[in-house]
Each structure stands twice: as C-alpha cells, then as structure tokens.
Protein 1
Amino acid sequence: MPRGENVLAELPADSATFAGNRAVGRIELSVGAEVRGNRRRRVCEAGSLRVRFPNVAPGGPLEAVIINTAGGMTGGDRFDLDFEVGANARLTVGTAAAEKIYRSLGPDTVVNVRLTVGVGATLAWLPQETILFDRMRLRRTIEADLAPDAQLIIAEMLVFGRSAMGEMVERGQLFDRWRIRAGGALVFAESLRLDGAIAESLARRAAAGGGCAIASVLKFPASETDIAAVRQQQSTFAGEVGISCFNGLALARLVAGEGAALRRDLIGLLTALGDMPLPRLWLN
C-alpha cells in the first residue's frame, strides 16, 4: 500500500476504529466589502462543520453562524476555523448553540481558530458558551492578525459543568492559548492552563472564587471611554466583572456562579462596548 494512502490501516485495530469515529471539521471563510454590502468571497466546509448566513439588516455586518453537526466534541476530535475579513468589510461570527466538550478517554479535543482582519475591517467573534464536562481534555488556540486600523472584539465563555443538573467538573485538562497581533506586532499573549483537580483550582479566591462560569472579552482598539461605559453597568452585573485598558486594547474578565448569569452579564458588557450588534441567536 503506498505511504499515506490509508493512515488508519497502519494503526492497531482498536486505534484505527477510534480514529475512524472521531469528528474532524474545518471552515474557511473570507468576506469582502462590495457596493451591495458585505459579501462572501470564499466558503469552504469540511467534516462536521457548517457555516450559515441568516439575513441581516441592509448595511449591517454579514453574520455567520457556525454549526457542529456532530453534536459536541470529545477526545480525538479536531476543528479548524479560518476566517478572513477583507478591507472595510464587517463580519459577526456566532454559533447555533452552546458547544459541548465531553469526557475524553485520553486524547485531547483540539480547536484551532485563526482570524485575519484587513485594513479598515471589523470582526466580532461571539460564539455561545462552551460547556465543559468532567474529565474533558480541551486544547484551544486563537490567533488573530489585524491590520493596524482593523477592529476586533472576541468574547469566549467557558462553563464548567451543567450546574442546573448538579454536574461539575472535578478533574480534566484545559489549555487555552490566545495570540493577537496588530500590524505584525504582538499586542496580546495569554495562555490559560487548568490541569488535574479543576474544581479545587476554581474554588480558590484568586482563581474563580467558587464560580463555575468564566469569560474573557478582548476589544481592539479600545480606550478609557470603553472602560467607563462598562464600569457604569457594574450595579447590574450578577457576578464579578473587571476590565482594564493597555496596549491599545481593552480586556474584561467575568466570573459567575452559573452559565445563565454569566451570559446575562456578558450581554450587558458587550452592549456597553457597542460597535457591533449581537448575533440574533444570543437574544432568542
């Protein structure tokens, strides 16, 4: 058999069966600004991932909705998402539902996100929450390359267990890596790692203070005006919300006791930041 023709055939029978049943998905999307508004230029879908485009108000940003037909992810699954926004175009990306990361028997669940935002373009990356199950293993990377005058907002929610059903994440592994570059210069770099006794780590006051739902929001460019707008809403937040400005960007952290409260706080924070409308599925 020629090399590379059938990789699964080179694995032990049990490994080949496992690999053959793993979900692999890819989306590549590029959009551009035209006289008629923001339009798709290239759409590529593979595996269990799909992207759909609901109708939006004339003159508004193009809205893309990611759909995972696999119904969740587990160890050995891999998703790659590549979104490019051309000069002066506007794009909002969301998901059709919360993503679920189930228990792994050993391998990592891998998610790679690459965002490219051109001159004068705007991208809002606003997926619904990611729900993590006990003994999950998630490795996620988010990389964004921006033109110097591009605009970007990223909001990511992580919910550790379904608290309404009495579930929690006692143990597991999470590695979340963000890298944001503007004009080729690195303006934000962060790596979050939770390994082993996750519930014990989240219970620490310096971590989540017992909260089981966390979120990070990054806006570029940003100013003290953005910070002031969010701080004016402090009395309306159910959980803890902090925001600061540095390197020309704003970074907010949110912690709540359960996913629904986190979602409400995040909607309030994003509304205060303005600029881009929320995906309609967030508000249904």
Note: The CA atoms of residues 223 and 245 lie 7 Å apart.
Protein 2
Amino acid sequence: MNRLRTILLIAGLLLVAAAIAGVAQPHLGLSATPPTGSTITVTGNGTVDATPDRASFDFGVTTNGTTAAEALGRDASRARAIIAALKRAGVASSAIQTIQVSLWPQTSRDGRQITGYQASNSVHVTSALTRSGSLVDAAVAAGANNVDGPSLDTAGAAALYDRTLKRALVAAKGKAQALASAAGLTLETPMKVREAGTSTPIVYGDALAARPGTGVPIEAGTQKVQASVTVTYSTG
C-alpha cells in the first residue's frame, strides 16, 4: 500500500511539473493563434462596345487532275492568280499568308484504285473592313472557290481590353464596398487581384451576305470586349 501511494505521489508531482513548464515556456504548452483580419473576395465584370475596323478571310482554291502533278499545277496556277488579284486590290504582301497546301488521291468506291488527284491551296488575308467586300469579289473572280470569313476585330484591341479591365476593377470595388457596408465593416486595401480569364469578343450585326449583281456587303456590327477580375480586399 505504501508503495502504491509513493507511485501515485510521484506521478502527481510529474504532472504538476509538466504544467508549470508549459506555463513558463508557452511553446511547450497549448497555444491559440490570434484571429487574422477579415477579407472580402468579389468578382467584377467589365464590357466595352467597339466597332470592328478589320476583317480577315481565308481564300482557297481546289482543283482536280488525273495525276498528282497535274492537280498541283492547276492549283498553283489559280492560287497565284488569286494572290495577284488581292495585291491589285490593294492588299500588301505582308497581309497575305499561305496557310495550307494539300494534295491527296481520289479513289474508286472500293478504295482499290486511284482515279485521280485533288489539290488545294488557301491564303489568309487581313484588310480594312471598308475594303473587305471588294477583296471577296476580286478573289472569287480570280478563281477562288473556297471563302471562309469574315473574322472581325479592331486595330486597337489591346487598348480596348485595358479599358475593359479598369471597368471590371471598378465594378469589383463597388461590390466589395456594398458587402462591407452591409456587414458593418470598413473596406481597406486590395490584397490580391487576379484576372479571371478573357472571353472571345462577340460581334453583333450582319456578317456576310452576298447579293446577286452587287459587291459582297460586310457589316461591322458591334463588338463587345469583355473582361473579369477577382479581387480580395482586407477589411477593418
């Protein structure tokens, strides 16, 4: 019995010593992390309307021949004619880019016999929107039998996007201020700003509508440039 009492006494003393050590050296005992300041995270969206002033097209030609050389030769001849017509219409050489040259065999229905060859050539062209209709006419008149476009954009797209980002930031701050006010907090400085991704510009209006007996009309419509940002603000 005495031995048991001695063991219990020693164990009690050890527990007391451990508790005292934890008080004297807080890093050895339990600690509480002081609460950090609160934050508000919001997403703001911005939009800027613009009128496109440039148009891009892909003009192509596809030809057939009994041999590969014949098909490719015909195709190359018509492609050169299309490029020359575009240059005569006022397109600079730097604005004309070959994007595809293809040649493939044509076969019989059972696929066992080559019956001929088909070749194609395509060029990509960017010009002022006001001249784009006449370029379509010129390319088709020169032999183009594939037309893809237009893709409309603006020459000052980068500056427009910067304006859109600024509007998105203003919208984000307005949301944050409303939330802070409703919660009885004071909005302070932004701690983190993240661009939340960009969206492809949306063009409203007629794009390409050919009319018999007239040049091809290209309507600019309205282009909406959009941006989104996510901002985290500290609050007091």
Note: Strands lie at 39-50, 54-65, 96-107, 114-128, 146-153, 187-198, 202-204, 222-235.
Protein 3
Amino acid sequence: MSIKTAAIIYGGKSTEHEVSIRSARNIAKAIDSNQFNTVLIAIGKSGKWFLKTQDELNHENVVVESSTQLVLIPGAIQDQIISLSDQKSIGTIDVVFPIVHGTGGEDGSLQGLLKTMNIAFVGPGVIGSALCIDKEVTKRILNEAGIANSAFSSYLKSERHLIDFETTKAKLGIPMYIKPPNLGSSVGISKVTTEAEFYQAIDLALQFDRKVLIEQNIVGREIECAVMGNGDVKASPMGEVVTNQDSHNFYDYSAKYTDSNGSVTVIPAELDAVTQDKIREIAIKTYQALCCEGMSRVDVFLTPNGDIYVNEVNTLPGFTDISMYPKLWGAAGISYSAVISQLLQLALDRHEEENEVKTTF
C-alpha cells in the first residue's frame, strides 16, 4: 500500500484556538508513519495559513505568524497549497485532519473550502458540521426526529429587547443554562438562578455569538459516547463526566481544561447493559439524523429515572490528553493510533465515493 500524505490543520480564529493546538500535537504523534506522511498547517488568529514544523507545533501555544505563509488554489487536481515566499507547492495532500475547533473550523466553513479544493477530510461534511455547530438548529432537528432533548428558547441579538426573565423562568424553570449556540468547550456558558445573573449571562453569551440559547436544566449524569463511520456506523463504550461540585457548579471551560481537579472522567461508565444499548442506539440515531459522517461525539444526560436526553453533538471532538473521544475507543480495545488511521481511511473512502458521482448530464 502506498503511503498517503495527511495534513493536520489546526489553530483558527475561534476561542478554542489553544485547545486545537493541543489536539493537533496528539494527532501528529499518533499518526502511523507506515501509512501516512504528515504535513502541519496552522491557521493563525488573523486567519492566515502557515506551514509549520513538528518543533513549532510542540512549542507554540498560540500560532506564531512567520514567513511560511500559504496560499490556496481551489479546483487544482494536485499541488493545491502553495508557499507564498517561494511560490512552490508543499506537495499533494491526500487527506486532511481538520482539528480546528469552533467557529470557522467545525461549522462547515473549512469543510466547504476543502471540498472546493477536492481534498478528502476527516469528520462530517458541510451539512452535518453546520447542523451540529448551531445548538439551536441541532435541537430543532432532534425534535423533528423524535429524539429527546431539553426545552429551550432562542433569540437573535436584534431581539435582545424581547428577552424577559420572568417569561423564560415560567417556561424553563430555574436553574437554567444560557450559552452562545455556535461555540464549544463551554465558552460563554452560564448557569443562572436569579434575574441579575440572567441578564448578565445574556450579555456574556451575545459577546460570542449573534444569538443566544437558553436551556432547561436537566438533572442527570453526563454520559458521552463516541460514534464512528460513514454508512456503517458504530458506537463506543460510554464515558461519564463527573464535575467537582466543590469548585464548579457545572462542567465549564475551567473544569474541562485549566483546573486539574475540576472534573474526572469515568471510562467505562458504570451502566447496566440495557442502558448502554439504549444510549448507543440514541447516539447512532442522533448521528444519522444530523447527517454526520466520519466521527462525532454524542453527549447525553441520563436522569435518575432512566430517561435519556441528548445534550449536544461534537463533530470534531478534542484529541487532547484528557479528551474523551480517543479514550472511549480505547475502552473498546482500539488504540489511539488505530483510531486516527480509521478516521483518515473513512475520509478517503467517502472522498472516493463522492468523486464517483456524476457532475455532467
């Protein structure tokens, strides 16, 4: 089998820039060099693209702009990415692992660009990415598919004057969660119980998005399930996130990434076989309803009486040292490196199928 060239694209303009770099480091280490050569492409906070070395990836906590800026040639059959300094191609890229979290990376924008460039890429395509990044749209699709999720209200920034605490409390109860619907990693999310907290949280969320999502609080265990596949889809064992309630009142950014004692993950989660099967079934149904391919992580709440509510779907889950997606597959006996190889192969398989579709009539 010939060795393919895989590019890891990381960084980006979103609030999850630093998390993306940490994910990229782990993916670069795990790629099987017997199957793939690796090219590193970083997107700075300005939006410019740069060719990077492994040493730069290892040591830069924020993408540093340099003389290795890249330009793109959409529509080219090969040599689609050119170095601006010497006008030479960086070589043909067979497949991309786009680990750019958040806005501009997992919202369909980058996926659309890669499709225009006719390059295979890991994870859902434009439609699945766009549906899942916007948590309000996700919830509407889930409701249409008959998949349980929390009650909610949503407002555009232009509708800020319509948002009322008492009306929302009567509909959703307290506490409630307020968030920017198009971000991940719990950025801009607040758990509120009072009127003062409510309006402060609305203003905070609208700093990060053009609309705000207000959700009912679901009391239950936070269970996560990794899903993988194109047509043939499989779901992993479950993992549970247990937040340290002494220091965090919910699973926020600090509990995830900066506070080493903020939370613990239990893999596999302590669940009976019937409940595990139900969660897998719901995770796969959710994945398919939202047009996901390649991979996604489906997060659910499991209530004390056994009800299961989908919380959210992460189409490009983290691959940091603490990230659940590779750990969940590890619990199924699939190594970190094997997970990366399978995801890259799924991307190549889908790309081949797409290129077989007729484009003339």
Note: The chain has three domains: 4-121, 151-216, 221-354.
Protein 4
Amino acid sequence: MIEPVIAATLRPPHRPRALLLYNPNAASTNATARDRIVAILGDGVDLEVQPTKQRGHATHVAAGAVHEGLDAVFVLGGDGTTNEVLQSLATTDVCLGHIPGGGANVFARSLGLPTDQQEAARRIRDALLEGRHRPISLGRAGERWFGFSAGLGFDAAVVRRIEQRPRRKRLLGDVAFVDQAVREWFAGGVGPQPAIRVHGTGGQARGPYGIAMVANADPYTYLGPRPMRVTPDASHDRGLDLLCVGPVTTARILRIIAETFGRAGHARFPEVDYWRDLDRFDLVADSPLPLMVDGDYAGEHQQVTFSAHLGALKALC
C-alpha cells in the first residue's frame, strides 16, 4: 500500500522564472485571451513565451526549461500538450501550472483549478509567487508518464479513431467521442471480446477482460460538464486504480456507462473487477492492442507495465 504524500512548500529566494508553452491550435484559446494570460502570468514573474510547433515539441522545450533551472512551466492548452510537458517535468524540481485551453481539460479540473482561463492563470501565478505547490502522483505506462488516465483496448481504440478524424473532432467536439465510441463498439474490432489479463495484483493472473482502464485521478474524463467516474476512488495522493470489465454485452456496457455518470456503483457489478491503490502491475493482451495515455493514442502494445510514482510532479494549484 502506498502512503499519501503531504503537501509541501517551496519558497523561491528570487523572482521566479517561468516558461509559458501554448498550443496555437488549442480548442478554446485565441490570441486575445492568450495576451491577457501572458499579462497575468508576467506580473511578478520573469516569463518566456513559446508556442508549440508540432507533436512532441512541448516535451523538448520543457526539457530545456529543466536544464536552465526555471522554477515553473505554465501550459496553455489541452491535456495532450500537458502530457507532453509531464515527460520532462516528472521527478524534477520544476513546477507545472496548467491553464485549461483544450476540450475536456481533465488534468486541470482534477486539480481543482478554475475552468476560466484568467482565474486559473492568477491561481497558479500566485501559487508560484507564494512558494506553494502540491506534490502529486503520476502514473507510468511503459516509458510514458500520465497525469490522470490510461487504457488498453477499447477506450484507446476510440481515441485512435478520433485522432484519425481530426476534422470530425473539431466539428462535433465532445459529441465526436460518443459517435466514435458507438462506431468502434459495433465495428467489433476492440472491446467486446475478452483479450486482456492482469498480472501483479496479488495471486494468479486475472481475466480475460474486454476492457482495462487505469486512473490516477477521479473523474476519468468529462462529457461536457458531466464527470465520467470510471474509477471513483482514484486520487492524486495514492497509487493507481484499475478497473476491468469481463465479457460484456451492449446492454451491460450501457448499464456501466450510465453508472459512471451517476452514482458510480458499477464497481460492484459482477462483470467488473476494481483494484485500488496499486503500485505496479502488467496488462497482457492476446495480440497488440491500442494504448491511450491522458487522452492521447500511444501506439499498439501486447504487454504494458503500469507503475505509480508518488510525489513525482510539483503541481501549482
């Protein structure tokens, strides 16, 4: 069992130096809003501003901020941009401040940050100036860090379909996820047939399962303003939660989904297995399946080792 980490205080002895990384293609940000955020963050902070240019660029730039000894990296963008920054900031002394600029903004909301961008900017700037941060746990899927969720199989297949159809996502927003989830389910490519086993939760391997979802926070994601509480006991202060669903029918999966948007009582269903506060385990599939981390497609994998790392990130919130 992993013990929670108590919030720490860092008091920088100098005027803080920070980098603002922004995604120019983020769903809910424009140049006017960005200029206002820059003005807020720059009040009392030596601020450098850079746009991301392509996938993976944020990881490279954030690594430079760590090398230069900056105090913080602010991210104005969605969960995908923030996840890229995590790859460089995890286990370092550089703090992360997330300003929601994407669609779901699960990471920022899981930390209790305001959805209003200017309010969030003020909150994380003040935390930096006052030397406050919250050490939170991160998950690791193979070599990839994640801040709130990961999955092997069906949910990752839905993300893969979304990324293959960016125009549909731009046009439909959150509705695109519902649309593609329905199409993936009835296509039968990934999901209904049990193909995943769990190793390392104590005792013999468990399964097979059709769906495996891993979380580092609650909720798992959002559909508009509604939280989807797949793993209702997950927390940034503990290890990873794992929820697996055995052989499922359409009626069963709809019942489970309804519960995740309601009382979250699905963990007691007979077709569901739910493990809490895990430090390490493996998901092993019969053949390569899609992997998702923090809402991003991360390739095809037959076996993935998941591990929890308490206090791996210093979050400004």
Note: The first strand starts at residue 8 and ends at 9.
